[in-house]
Amino acid sequence: MDFPILTTMMLVPLAGAILCLFVGNQGDGAPARGIALASTLATFALGILLWVNYDIGGAQWQFQESYDLFAGFSYALGIDGISLMLIMLSVFLMPICILASWEAITKRVGEYMAAFLFMEVLMIGTFAAQDLFLFYIFFEAGLIPMYLIIGVWGGDNRIYASYKFFLYTLLGSVLMLVAMFWMTATAGTSDIPTLMEYPFPEGAQMWLWLAFFASFAVKVPMWPFHTWLPDAHVQAPTAGSVILAGVLLKLGGYGFIRFSLPMFPEASAEFAWLVFILSMIAVIYTSLVALVQADMKKLIAYSSVAHMAIVTVGLFAFNVQGLEGAMLIMLSHGLVSGALFLCVGVIYDRLHTREIERYGGLSINMPYYAIFFLLFTMASIGLPGTSGFVGEFLSLAGIYQTSSLVALICTTGIILGAAYMLYLYRRVAFGAQTNEDAAAMSDIRPREWAMMVPIAAVVLWMGVYPESFLAPMREDIRVLNAQIADAAPASDAELAAGTPRDGMANAIEHDGEGAH
Amino acid sequence: MDFPASFALIAPELILTASGLMLLLVCAWRGDKMARPVAILAAAALFGAGFMLVPGLHFGTGPDTYAFGTLIKVDGFALFAKALIYLAAIGCLMIAPAFFNSEAAGSEKGLRAEYSVLVLFAVLGMSIMVSAADFITLYLGLELNSLAAYVLASILRQDQRSAEAGLKYFVLGALASGILLYGISLLYGFTGGTDFVSVRAGLEGDLSTGQLFGLIFVMAGLAFKIAAVPFHMWTPDVYEGAPTPVTAFFSTAPKVAAVALTARVVFEVFGGQVLAWQQIVMFAALASIVFGALGAIGQENLKRLLAYSSINNIGFILLGLAVANADGASAMLVYLFIYVVMSLGSFVALLMLRSEDGHLYETFGDIRGLATTRPVIAWSLLVLMFSLAGIPPLLGFFSKFVIFKATVEAGLVAFAAIAIAASVIGAFYYIKFVKVMFFDDAVDVVKGKSGNSHWALLILTALIVSPLGYLMTQSLTDLADKAAAALFVAV
Lengths: 516, 491
Hints:
The complex is a heterodimer.
Chain A: H1 5-23, H2 30-53, E1 62-67, E2 75-79, H3 81-100, H4 109-128, H5 132-141, H6 143-153, H7 158-187, H8 192-197, H9 202-219, H10 228-235, H11 238-263, H12 265-291, H13 296-315, H14 320-351, H15 362-365, H16 367-381, H17 387-402, H18 404-429, H19 436-439, H20 446-464, H21 467-485
Antiparallel strand pairs in A: 1-2
Helix pairs in contact in A: 1-2, 1-4, 2-3, 2-4, 3-4, 3-11, 3-14, 3-20, 3-21, 4-5, 4-6, 4-11, 5-7, 6-7, 7-9, 7-10, 9-11, 9-12, 10-13, 11-13, 11-14, 12-13, 12-18, 13-14, 13-17, 13-18, 14-16, 14-17, 14-20, 14-21, 16-18, 16-20, 17-18, 17-20
Chain B: H1 3-9, H2 11-30, H3 35-51, H4 54-59, E1 66-67, E2 72-73, H5 76-100, H6 113-130, H7 135-153, H8 160-191, H9 196-202, H10 209-226, H11 234-241, H12 244-250, H13 253-269, H14 274-297, H15 302-323, H16 326-351, H17 370-373, H18 375-389, H19 395-409, H20 413-439, H21 452-465, H22 473-489
Antiparallel strand pairs in B: 1-2
Helix pairs in contact in B: 2-3, 2-6, 3-5, 3-6, 5-6, 5-12, 5-13, 5-16, 5-22, 6-7, 6-13, 7-8, 8-9, 8-10, 8-11, 10-13, 10-14, 11-12, 11-15, 12-16, 13-16, 14-15, 14-20, 15-16, 15-19, 15-20, 16-18, 16-19, 16-21, 16-22, 18-20, 18-21, 19-20
């Protein structure tokens, strides 16, 4: 296809963002909201077009565009199935985010919407970039709008959270930049598809891997680099949390699957133990921390850390199930944690508190809300039939082939996940209506239906028929797996073939005739 | 010696000299009421001088770049630096009248005619500095520039801060000149020449102690002029005390000249002794990055903060110098260009922070919540600050990009890693700007109107550092590559 659809998908929200900036707060922000919704919906429509036209099983890189615009790096875009899915996730969540901010944001609406639309441009760019430095630019540029979103429209402690978010992630990524320079100097190109096949010397791979790890581990975030996340989540406005959990955390996972694994397979195998240990700690530790949270957003934030740990475990399992599972968890977690933040946002908009104690018995006065909340809670736990199950099952099946111990501990995390989510749900939706103001809250309105229904539908779709989402990625994951297979670390689950016994398998041994 | 050819080579300097002298006479006879025409004519002279550079920049210089024997060398490198200096000086002339004609100038309201002439002479000095091929020419240019600069710093004679800034600048500048001169005399004594070629020839082989001392004294003197750590102490005081348009001038044009001069000296004179100076430059670079960033953190005064920011930026520029090859020099020039744009833009933005009656605001407390009261200034400052911090997709990232690329490609990976990690400290105070303007509640004191020249420069610089600026990176790196190559071709 000659039509530069990826560039168009970035130009549409960009134009919307600039318009929003100029419209500002006129008419109490109504025009800015309209522009933002229209441009995100248009981008989503383009995204559907992209998916429909994506040739499953065709060329590895499709919709490629390349223009010689800059010195030092090139403007090259293109996607494979993995990028396609993550782009779809971003453009799908974006209109919902705009809807979530429809009434909650009343000050400086134009700037707010512009920040979100810039964010969308950058996210699409990150997933579509085919040049190492173009990727870095998009990856890092997301700091600016997110810093503003947290800092201007966040909660009480927003300044601390925004500084922490900014400096933490910046420190993580600058080292990656140095590694990138080294890679391009060695390989002579900054083209990502070429670099994915370039054999870097093993000794250098270690350093490069660590430099990339510094960046992605902060983004994912992995324990102990996760501390920025609860602060940022809690202080960000609802839609900010949705984008943070839904898409920004996926940048880390995407980085591992796009850079660390294919470019440094030997180093990845060498450091797999590190990833496993950090992930195991994360699963257990953050789940326990989530269990005792009094703040709903913080609880979900910690649960994100735990879920993302299962992603990293799956990624470094070095087999197809693990990789497919990791990708599916990323998609599913993007939807589910986004939806959970929306659920918190719905009641936060009514009562202006995130404290779990202030709610209770919501299923009585908000039955429809309770149904959606329940669905997303179950999806977060990983109930079969929801999207969460497929990914977690595949991921754990993958890691079980590599290490039984890691699989055992990570599965414990699933149980703990059920504990803290069900406990949260019981305290918020079930039980007696102890708080009068909470009992007086009205059920969800049409705008909130419009936010919940699409996510709920996709969550069920992904749970019942994940093939739709796996099909575009299958070939890419197979290629990736073939690439890293040589480096795969030893697994403790190899079946050892013993010597077959003589005689029939069901033969019963007799001591002799007549000896009773 | 071919005089006509030599004069043709120094045509821009001749234009500047002639117009400077003529305008000086105009000032002497007609006084301050001619201030505005003088400023316009001075800008025109700079523009004319800049125009003379275009053929050389575009088509490359001829084979014969030396003028007056080996006193002056007009190569591609000099042309690039001059173009940048003239542009920066024109910008600084544009923003001055609105400042001096307002209440911000205190009891001495009204632009003085000699201001523009002083700028012209300072630029002439810089012009000579960057094309010096002999230590004597170098010193002449440097002193012409410095003397004009001392007067400019204290041009508000009644203002105590301005006078103090001028005095401090003078005393410390004289000390630096002394150190430099001492280094030059040592080099002359131990090599027997003052022109760059013979000094370089004299430095071949193992350095004697005297030669090494000469080298170090020259480097120290130059470090003083570019305000690199550990010779940076004067910068915050001078920047804070000098009138803001003068500060804007100090942080742009003379910086370019001093950096270009340093580059020429280290490559053309000490080019055979890279190991002798590389460590010094590396240390100065890292120390400038770290101290510039740490010093800025506690500042409340915006001008002082930008002074530390300039120290921090010099660190990155020196990083390119420490690489000691043509790539590094080219990266340094790209960085210089982008730095000049960002620095000019930031100071113009500071000049626009005025109260209703024209007083200037210059602390963080005054710009609280600027985003709601003066959104255009605030957004421009946001773009400039994120750009200074080197956050993509702004052009400031590209400047760091080329510098670190050159550093890593030269094999100085660990050095680059330390420097880039230190740059995160710098990000802290740049984002404080944004925090104060965007997150805090508005104090709404910035109400004064600003002139068209301010708006034009602010918007222009903000557009250049915005992602749109990337579209010009190809031609910029092309020019810088050519200029840097000139530095190495002669060797």
